[in-house]
Automatic annotation (TrEMBL):
HAMAP family: DNA_mis_repair. Keywords: DNA damage, DNA repair, Endonuclease, Hydrolase, Nuclease. This is DNA mismatch repair protein MutL. The lineage of its organism: Bacteria, Pseudomonadati, Pseudomonadota, Gammaproteobacteria, Oceanospirillales. The keyword Cell division does not apply.
Length: 644
């Protein structure tokens, strides 16, 4: 390919704007987003959005904001003209949604755009501006209009057929427009919003400042199920404030389509935020499912950079590690407080999912086994049926070495029973244990009221516990529930240990690393050492793993270290070692919890219910499966046609 001798020249203004439009204007939804953001920045109290034919024929956004004066209208459609920033200092602490000054110019270059505005209270003093000709000269004419601004965008991509042919069907394009509208409507509850499609009202959302008003808007936009299965969170620390609604793990979705995160009112999709959320939901979410949330992070605008991407969907935090830790700890604490309570679905509409790998087989009954195996920690009586059993057995022996009193401290003594659940419900039928008593946990506000999960009535097929509470019938998957109880107590014991016991490798593992990985290993030596890993730098592109946590002696050192370094470089924190340890404890808890077809006494069943009420995250097992469900009296009445 030969180079031509073309002279350097200035691009035609319309061509330059069309090139810029390629970054900002992808489809009708992106136009709608830009116009709505301008309306919000204008201080509007009401925003009306009218769409025709999915936005390809017309996109019109009308607001009642401050408007634009006649003298400023010629610049309204000019590129790099804005009233929102005036200096580098303004850009570094920008609080408005728009600031680049190129959206309207870009949109007008690929459509027929008309802007009518009035900055005065007299509706006769409005003005219209359009951009015409190849030079996009602004033409201003009088046009009556109430205070505020209306922007109409017609025939999108009429002059760029190559872009227009990539648009989808009217239904698909409007779905994207509606999603853009939904995101903006969730960002500002103090604004009244109206969305119409082909002259039909799709959404009409009144303004409201109370939590109840906000929940009504969320229910209107995301469905009542979202609010019914979400918890409100509000937490503040270190100049950061997080508020919003977090979906319960049992109310998850097959795709990440109900995840809304706002930074100072701006909707963002950020890798650091996504990672913190994933870690918070790590061991309470069913495999392959996605959490739902509407969350608002507020912080000083000076410590967040919004000038990262033309679409302004990404941000960069000055102290990403602090933001990550704050988000993770806040969400982790909120989900941990999700214990059995009376706000569960009273009609029992939750669907039980597949077991996800749970083992339901009985525990070997062998008097010659070690005591901890007799008490339910035995992995299986048939190693051939579980190929990984020997590996987990070795892990368990390592855990036992760290916690020799495991069998005495793992389970809470039960009240009023003839035996300890740890011996009879978990272990051999002829493994005796001393009697220990503990008071039942009752609601603090009314000691005479029944506990949230009520009292046991009996067992169903040796799998489910049936209990009666104030709302009606409670059904508990006893294996799944007890698995979570055992798992959480193992995690507590491990966290209480003074550091992780490390085991030197007989032969250090050499890792061919990139320069970036070596730099991360060097700068994060202290954090890596706290995880029980000894990582030496043996050369500019070589790392040596000399030591691993004892409980992870069988893990792949290279894979673990690479994932750990990647997380440290990207997020400033790594949860890889913790995740591996918790995965191990989860497996141990699964094999160490009460099995199906195990006969329990009523005292033992009630003891398990009380343990559930005391245990964090006990609404789900370690694999994210629900552990219990509620069938209210109204649902039972409907089932038997009572009162019909």
């Amino acid at each position: 390919m030969t180079a031509t001798a073309s002279r350097i020249h200035v691009l035609d203004p319309r061509l330059a704007n069309q090139i810029a439009a390629g970054e900002v204007v992808e489809r009708p939804a992106s136009v709608t987003k830009e116009l709505i953001e301008n309306a919000i920045d204008a201080g509007s109290q009401r925003i009306d959005v009218d769409i025709e034919q999915g936005g390809t024929r017309l996109i019109k956004v009308r607001d009642d904001g401050i408007g634009i004066g006649e003298q400023d209208l010629p610049l309204a459609l000019a590129r790099h003209a804005t009233s929102k920033i005036g200096s580098l200092e303004d850009l570094e602490g920008v609080s408005s949604l728009g600031f680049r000054g190129e959206a309207l110019a870009s949109i007008s270059s690929v459509s027929r755009l008309e802007l009518i505005s009035n900055a005065e209270d007299d509706p006769r003093h409005g003005w219209r501006v359009v951009a015409e000709g190849r030079g996009m000269e602004a033409r201003v004419t009088p046009a009556p209009h109430p205070r505020g601004t209306s922007v109409g965008v017609r025939d999108l991509f009429f002059n760029t057929p190559a872009r227009r042919k990539f648009l989808r069907t009217e239904k698909t394009e409007f779905a994207h427009v509606e999603e853009a509208f939904r995101r903006q409507a969730l960002s500002r509850y103090d604004i009244t919003w109206v969305l119409r499609h082909n002259q039909k009202v799709v959404h009409q959302l009144p303004s409201g400042h109370s939590v109840a008003a906000r929940e009504r808007r969320i229910a209107s936009l995301l469905g009542k199920n979202f609010i019914e299965h979400a918890r409100y969170i509000e937490r503040e620390a270190g100049g950061l404030r997080l508020s919003g609604w977090v979906g319960l793990p049992t109310h998850s979705r097959s795709q990440a389509d109900q995840q809304y995160f706002f930074v100072n009112g701006r909707v963002v999709r950020d890798r650091l935020v996504a990672h913190a959320v994933r870690q918070a939901y790590r061991d309470v979410l069913f495999n392959g499912r996605h959490p739902v949330f509407v969350l608002y992070l507020e912080l000083d605008p000076d410590v967040v950079d919004v000038n990262v991407h033309p679409t302004k969907h990404e941000v960069r935090f000055r102290d990403g590690r602090m933001v990550h830790d704050f988000l993770y700890s806040s969400l982790h604490h909120c989900l941990a407080s999700s214990k059995p309570a009376v706000d569960h679905d009273a009609d029992g509409d939750e669907a039980n999912e597949n077991d996800g790998g749970h083992q339901q087989e009985g525990v070997a009954e062998n008097a010659e086994q070690p005591r901890w195996q007799q008490q339910g920690i035995a992995l299986t009586h048939s190693p051939d049926r579980h190929p990984g059993a020997e590996r987990v057995r070795r892990f368990m022996q390592g855990y036992q070495a760290l916690h020799p009193n495991h069998e005495e401290t793992l389970l809470t003594p039960q009240a009023g029973g003839s035996t300890d659940l740890s011996a009879n419900a978990m272990g051999s039928s002829h493994g005796a244990s001393e009697v220990r008593e503990a008071p039942l946990t009752m609601p603090a506000d009314d000691p005479t009221a029944p506990p949230p999960l009520g009292f046991a009535l009996g067992q169903l097929h040796g799998i489910y516990i049936l209990a009666q509470n104030a709302q009606g019938l409670v059904l508990v998957d006893m294996h799944a529930a007890h698995e979570r109880i055992v798992y959480e107590r193992m995690k507590t014991q491990l966290a209480a240990a003074k550091g992780l016991d490390a085991q030197p490798l007989l032969v250090p593992v050499s890792i061919a690393a990139s320069g970036a990985e070596v730099a991360t290993a060097e700068s994060e030596q202290e954090a890596i050492a706290k995880l029980g890993i000894e990582l030496d730098i043996a050369g500019p592109e070589t790392l040596l793993v000399r030591q691993m946590p004892a409980l992870l002696a069988q893990a792949d050192p290279e894979a673990l270290v690479r994932q750990m370094l990647e997380e440290l470089a990207r997020y400033g924190r790594t949860h890889q070692v913790e995740a591996r340890l918790h995965e191990l404890l989860s497996t141990m808890a699964c094999h160490g919890s009460v099995r199906a077809n195990r006969r329990l006494t009523l005292d033992e069943m009630n003891g398990l219910l009380r343990d559930m009420e005391r245990t964090e995250r006990s609404d789900q097992c370690n694999h994210g499966r629900p552990t219990w469900t509620q069938m209210g009296l109204k649902a039972l009445d409907r089932l038997f046609l009572r009162g019909q």
